[in-house]
Amino acid sequence: MRFGSIAGKAVALVSFGAVSILAHGESNTYEDIPRRNVFGLKPPIINKPVPPELSLRPVPTLTLTGVVDFSIAKWALITRTDPGRASSAYTLTPGEIEGGLQILDLDARKATVTVRVDGTDTVVLHLPSTNQAAQISGFGRTPPPVPY
User: Fold this and answer.
1) Distance separating alpha carbons of residues 107 and 125, to the nearest angstrom
2) Choosing a second label site near 81 at 20 to 30 A (CA), which of 7, 58, 74, 123?
3) Using one digit for the tens of pLDDT, what is the confidence trace for 83-102?
């Protein structure tokens, strides 16, 4: 019997304590800990996504050096020179992608090629005519007269 009376007193004490806490309006006795910040806690850092910076890439120099058109196959001969790098020569068929260059259209009669550069820019290249090529290369000089 003695155990029952002790247990009854303990239950009464606990319930009285709970009622007194609810009567005072204190729902959480640990609310004061974050305000004191004894451990020097900092709020969590929220990383906001940073939009990627658009880098200006140097524009390559493209030169159409030739157009080949057979009845069964077509090729464009293109030289690409990026600033600070050695030039690279490509032989491409329509639809082929190599070195960041893709041939979209090839017109041998007009000697033009439409090229997509690095997947973003579209450029139309023209093959210089024979007169322009002769002037550019220096071979357009008139030959000296032939002696009789």
Assistant:
1) 10
2) 74
3) 888 889 999 999 888 988 89
